[in-house]
Write a structure and sequence with these properties.
Rieske Iron-sulfur Protein, binds FE2/S2 (inorganic) cluster, 4-stranded antiparallel sheet, mainly beta
Length: about 100
Amino acid sequence: MEFVKIGLLSDFPEGKMRKVEVKGKELLVVNINGEIYSIDNICTHEECPLSDGFLQDEVVTCPCHLAQFNVKTGKKVANPATGEDIEDEQTFKVKVENSEVFVEV
Ligand code: FES
């Protein structure tokens, strides 16, 4: 595991989410009130990209079957509309140094 630079702080505006590819992994990177968080971008249900969904406060909703995850903790907030019980998302450590953003992968 190592910290990899994914961009500048200004690339991640507050209240927005963005997909970033690092070492073959797709991460979802989100700025919540000035703090940057990252979870796996691939839904644990049927692998839809969470970055195509929508963000409300700290909860992302998957575009495919509306499962919800907390972007700070990766914890599932709601199961998909199809009713299966799904796993939480993996989280990734983020650090910001000199306005540069790094994730640990
Ligand atoms: S793929 Fe995300 S809820 Fe089904």
